[in-house]
Amino acid sequence: MPKQKGLLVVLSGPSGAGKGTVVKELLKASDKIRLSVSATTRNPRVGEKNGREYFFTTQKDFETMIDRGEVLEYACYCGNYYGTPKKYVDEQLACGNDVILEIEVQGGGQVREKCPDAVSVFLIPKSFAVLADRLRGRGTEDEQTVRRRLDAALQEIRQAEDYDYVVINDVLDDCVQDILCILRSEKNKTVKMKNFIKEVLADAQTIR
Hints:
It catalyses: GMP + ATP = GDP + ADP. Belongs to the guanylate kinase family. Pfam families: Guanylate_kin (PF00625). This is Guanylate kinase. By secondary structure, the protein is of the alpha/beta class. The protein has a domain at 8-36 and 96-207: 3-Layer(aba) Sandwich (Rossmann fold), CATH 3.40.50.300. The chain has 8 helices and 9 strands. The protein has helices at 19-29, 59-67, 86-94, 105-114, 128-138, 143-157, 172-187, 190-207, and strands spanning 8-12, 33-35, 38-40, 54-56, 71-77, 80-85, 98-102, 119-125, 165-169. The strands form 2 sheets. The chain has a 5-stranded parallel β-sheet with strand order 2-7-1-8-9, sandwiched between helices. A 4-stranded mixed β-sheet has the order 4-3-6-5. The longest helix has 18 residues, at 190-207.
């Protein structure tokens, strides 16, 4: 079977939807899935390391990356820049690996415009109350910041219909399996299997 190019997967959802946890489980589930490490100007949270969760950088350096065309997408969220460096993504897709972009809705829209073959998944909580509880349960932000994130979450959820798929993150294992099923289905679409069909037809000519 000819080597397939990997899938570019846009995974978005409001803060507190559980994107980070879901991505960790997806990476455990398949050695053909990669996470694109985003660059950001926000401060690291406890336990985060530069180059693992994010590339932490300054606003000046980030804006230089934008000017040089070195980011696939970028967005300003709650006063901080977030963006996807292009080089790593292109290399992994060419190797046949699926690359997950865990990005905000604004950045997701940019990727869908630039990369129409991208598969977009919106992760949504079981209810808005669950989302609020998760954000407050982190204990890392004051109430004013939590309220800003909840306001932003409302705006993001209103854009969920722009995505190819909406997956509810209630039971973690079910959520992860739903996304894995989406990836398998996307790879079996006719448009992505044309080269394989041609190969089978060519093989048929040798045995008739």
